[in-house]
Amino acid sequence: MIMMDKWAYSSKLRERNPYSKLLFGVGNLLICVLCRSNVVSLCIFLIMLALVVLIGKMPFRAYLRLLCIPLIFLVISTITVIFEVGHVESAKILVSLAGGHIYMTKWSLTRGIQLFLSSFASVTCLYFLAVTTPVIDMIQVLRSLHLPKIVIELMYLIYRFIFLLLETGNAIVVAQDCRLGYKDRKTSVQSTSKMAAVLFVRAYQKADALFCSMESRGYDGDLCVLSTIERPRVPEVIVMLAITLLEGIVCYYFLGNMPAI
Amino acid sequence: MKELKDYKGGHALRTFNLLDEQYHKPVCDMHGDTMIEIKNLNYQYEDGTVALQNVNLTINKGEKIAIMGPNGSGKSTLFLCLNGVYKPTNGSIQVNGEPVTYNRNGLKKLRQIIGIVFQNPDNQLFSADVFQEISFGPMNLGLEKEVVRERVESVLESLHIQHLKKRPTHFLSGGQKKQVAIADILAMKPEVILFDEPTAALDSYHSQLVNDLVDELCEAGITVIQATHDSDYAMAWADRIIVIQDGKVLVKDTPQKVFENVELRKKAYLEEPNVLKMYNCLCKANIIEQTNNPICPKSIDELIKGLE
Amino acid sequence: MKELKDYKGGHALRTFNLLDEQYHKPVCDMHGDTMIEIKNLNYQYEDGTVALQNVNLTINKGEKIAIMGPNGSGKSTLFLCLNGVYKPTNGSIQVNGEPVTYNRNGLKKLRQIIGIVFQNPDNQLFSADVFQEISFGPMNLGLEKEVVRERVESVLESLHIQHLKKRPTHFLSGGQKKQVAIADILAMKPEVILFDEPTAALDSYHSQLVNDLVDELCEAGITVIQATHDSDYAMAWADRIIVIQDGKVLVKDTPQKVFENVELRKKAYLEEPNVLKMYNCLCKANIIEQTNNPICPKSIDELIKGLE
Amino acid sequence: MSKRQKLVFRASILVALSLGIAPVTSAMHIMEGYLPLSYCVMWGVLCLPFLVYGVFSIKKQLKDNRRLLLIFAMVGAYAFVLSALKIPSVTGSSSHPTGTGLSAILFGPGATALIGIIVLLFQAILLAHGGLTTLGANTFSMAIAGPIVSFLIYKLVLKCKGSRYVAIFLAASLGDLFTYVVTSLQLGLAFPSTDGGVFTSIGKFMGVFAVTQIPLAIIEGILTVIVVIALESF
């Protein structure tokens, strides 16, 4: 079970129009990335938290757990950005190595903190989308952007098949575990590769079976289905667009210290 | 499972308004006309395995047919032949008096008349959500979008699963998946529906639901062919039983005659239905009077009713 | 399926030589000792769904237990808790008088004692060929290669599937896959085997085979717990039936008492077994004399024998 | 498909898998909001020709064989699932073999890029691996650069009459390494050092990620070989 997917379907914001949600989420994301301002990041972080947890009714603990996922990457790369390697004598030297020094400067520290906060805020924007808008709705929005039909078809199919294979894969892992297949590292590697191999075989068999049943319903190369989503309600979309733009302008004029990028 | 509690109520009448429009002929009229005629059908897989051998069958309109036989005996192959997914190596299939043609139009026509509900819904449902899934068949028939929308809504209503409309397929339970798989086919308004072990792996609640649904379809005049392993069920439900083994039709006859045949039962690994056992025992013990042409009740329930 | 024709012959005695070595205590001795004791078991999924609530169960050595209840009622979760794949959120499980520990050694011990045969063999079999598949469990127990080889051979012989030894698993038929799935577990020589709907989606021939096998295991003194939807079968086979719904144990009692409870049957969607219907009918009609403490036969066959 | 076609197809799957499991770890997905917008756009634009070519290439292949649509989708789902499965105590905390390159040889780099970008999009939305603004950069490193290198190495080793398992191992582990090099490059370009400039920065990122990525690349190489051996026995 993929938890983000589950939260998206159980969110109180699920039924809101996907166009406006996407507009708002992506709009805020762009503001985060463009401004790189600590204050803006903090504000957006709080707005998204409020939307997802207070209005969307996602459990706070689950949300916290989600926030931990990108931490590994964030911490490692931010440390890399903050600390410099070289021969500069004037900087605040932390460690001296044979060939040079590892040091940080005020500028690199500021940049690191900015980067950390703004990335974290952008992640909350992504989460806002991910846990309030089911994937099916998102694909629907992409469809109305006139992406090539084949891309849309593939997205729908891959989304469905992910869960089909995930179920099989998980079941196989559990069955292996029941027979002590993950008792130590060596066994684990063997079990994992066997699982990967058999999952591939199963994927192939499933594709065959599904094709057969699709043919029996008259599939002849053109995958046509109807969807339930309603057209964007124009007023709602305009309101969301206005809010996002306003946010952007406020950030730009009052807080914006747009870095030269 | 709240939604389903309503189901067993007085809905039966309302349920097949969708189908009644189409099949407005009274049932009795239809019975007897030949729906499908299979002559000398042979099917051989690419690898040379012979899956069907000299199959001859006539299926009448509105008939209830159970196909029995061990796994791998050729039932699924027969279904896929009937639906035009497999092209027979030899022999011919006539549907509604016309031979099946294997060009695009011929197949489209065939698939509108005959639909298959596959055994494992996970091998049938390919769409991300229920509405899309059910709309696939009707869209392939080339109907207008509005017509398709209406059909899907109407099928959802008939099966009392409107609440599933926007549900993503992967959130459905096994029983719900089965219902959607059936809706898939009903939305194409076929005249014949082939069910491949529709209640396998379902719990008794959903099995009952599916069995009731099948009964309603039959009442609405649809020809239903079911592959099943359940002797009790086949005895109770079927007009005729076709026993297949190793790709050959062993026998096609009424349930009682099929199950009374001890040799056949042994050969095709058919269990004797409980009701038949009981009936024979009661006859022997002279609790039930035996006439010259004894007709066994169809189920234990019927037998009990008779005794009372 | 030639291989299986021999099976029904006089093999029963020979079949469990493999197991007899291990379980040399006579059956009667074992019955009555507590095998598994579950106290106040709760299990909650990550997303907060409560799958099991305050489950209290005692399972004795050598008992035959059927677990019934709709799909999604928590049967599979219970199985996975018993096997240590899921760690209970609350409550405790004692096996052979010792509480389960969830470290590496504790789990190893637990999984040697309790084995699960999963419902869908396609989700259990992952090796390329049958021999590899069956040897997986014993290998992980850390046995010598020679011992593993012997065990696999011996299990293959017991199930009369030696001829499948080198067959690739994905070329097996559904029934054969099930047999291999059972062999998987038998090769680990567990004291308790949990079967999750072992005959779902099998044809009647293989169902019979599996049922016979289960009976032999029980005779050999193994504690067997089966999840099933088949009332007739549960009535005939089980010592006790445990009914689960929405993660709670509704009742644990003898089959007759469970099925005589009309309210319970309705609530948990259990069908009334045919034999019970028939028995009650015959009692009413005064064909069978009713005593003060009527004991219903276990199956239609037994009932018929009684009548004769 | 005819019998022979099927055989060729199965064989090609084997070959594909051998280099296909381009091992990528979730730690190497550049997270949401980490790259400056101009770089996001740049990497996105760089992916475009591959994606457009991918659409044409897929359409062309589907014309010959409709069944391929489902196979394409299954390959995508397979790649995703391998990174999403909860596997108890395996190689390392965050190592998954992902099959984005699986289709490189089967269906060509174009089709792979297209399937890859869809998989990466789903990984961002469903698993929080990567992000929307960094989708272009991640696609370039994982769905375009890595698979192409794996593919070339595999062909090269075979041409030099190297053993197939060696070829698989090298393709898998070097493909992994190349993805990590490209990712470091992307990060280094975006965040140049104060004095050393871009190259120092790239070196820094490579140095830091080397700690996790080099052992993982080797483990993934071994894992891939075992998978292929297992798959061959089917």
From TrEMBL, chain A:
<feature type="transmembrane region" description="Helical">
    <location>
        <begin position="237"/>
        <end position="255"/>
    </location>
</feature>
<dbReference type="Pfam" id="PF02361">
    <property type="entry name" value="CbiQ"/>
</dbReference>
<feature type="transmembrane region" description="Helical">
    <location>
        <begin position="113"/>
        <end position="136"/>
    </location>
</feature>
<feature type="transmembrane region" description="Helical">
    <location>
        <begin position="22"/>
        <end position="55"/>
    </location>
</feature>
<keyword id="KW-0812">Transmembrane</keyword>
<protein>
    <submittedName>
        <fullName>Cobalt/nickel transport system permease protein</fullName>
    </submittedName>
</protein>
<keyword id="KW-1133">Transmembrane helix</keyword>
<feature type="transmembrane region" description="Helical">
    <location>
        <begin position="157"/>
        <end position="175"/>
    </location>
</feature>
<feature type="transmembrane region" description="Helical">
    <location>
        <begin position="62"/>
        <end position="83"/>
    </location>
</feature>
<keyword id="KW-0472">Membrane</keyword>
<dbReference type="InterPro" id="IPR012809">
    <property type="entry name" value="ECF_CbiQ"/>
</dbReference>
<keyword id="KW-1003">Cell membrane</keyword>
<dbReference type="GO" id="GO:0006824">
    <property type="term" value="P:cobalt ion transport"/>
</dbReference>
<dbReference type="InterPro" id="IPR052770">
    <property type="entry name" value="Cobalt_transport_CbiQ"/>
</dbReference>
<dbReference type="InterPro" id="IPR003339">
    <property type="entry name" value="ABC/ECF_trnsptr_transmembrane"/>
</dbReference>
<dbReference type="GO" id="GO:0043190">
    <property type="term" value="C:ATP-binding cassette (ABC) transporter complex"/>
</dbReference>
UniProtKB/TrEMBL annotation, chains B, C:
<keyword id="KW-1003">Cell membrane</keyword>
<keyword id="KW-0547">Nucleotide-binding</keyword>
<dbReference type="InterPro" id="IPR015856">
    <property type="entry name" value="ABC_transpr_CbiO/EcfA_su"/>
</dbReference>
<dbReference type="GO" id="GO:0016887">
    <property type="term" value="F:ATP hydrolysis activity"/>
</dbReference>
<keyword id="KW-0813">Transport</keyword>
<dbReference type="GO" id="GO:0043190">
    <property type="term" value="C:ATP-binding cassette (ABC) transporter complex"/>
</dbReference>
<comment type="similarity">
    <text>Belongs to the ABC transporter superfamily.</text>
</comment>
<feature type="domain" description="ABC transporter">
    <location>
        <begin position="36"/>
        <end position="271"/>
    </location>
</feature>
<comment type="function">
    <text>Part of an ABC transporter complex. Responsible for energy coupling to the transport system.</text>
</comment>
<dbReference type="InterPro" id="IPR005876">
    <property type="entry name" value="Co_trans_ATP-bd"/>
</dbReference>
<keyword id="KW-0067">ATP-binding</keyword>
<dbReference type="GO" id="GO:0042626">
    <property type="term" value="F:ATPase-coupled transmembrane transporter activity"/>
</dbReference>
<dbReference type="Pfam" id="PF00005">
    <property type="entry name" value="ABC_tran"/>
</dbReference>
<dbReference type="InterPro" id="IPR027417">
    <property type="entry name" value="P-loop_NTPase"/>
</dbReference>
<comment type="function">
    <text>Probably part of an ABC transporter complex. Responsible for energy coupling to the transport system.</text>
</comment>
<dbReference type="GO" id="GO:0006824">
    <property type="term" value="P:cobalt ion transport"/>
</dbReference>
<dbReference type="InterPro" id="IPR050095">
    <property type="entry name" value="ECF_ABC_transporter_ATP-bd"/>
</dbReference>
<protein>
    <recommendedName>
        <fullName>ABC transporter ATP-binding protein</fullName>
    </recommendedName>
</protein>
<keyword id="KW-1278">Translocase</keyword>
<keyword id="KW-0472">Membrane</keyword>
<dbReference type="InterPro" id="IPR003593">
    <property type="entry name" value="AAA+_ATPase"/>
</dbReference>
<dbReference type="GO" id="GO:0005524">
    <property type="term" value="F:ATP binding"/>
</dbReference>
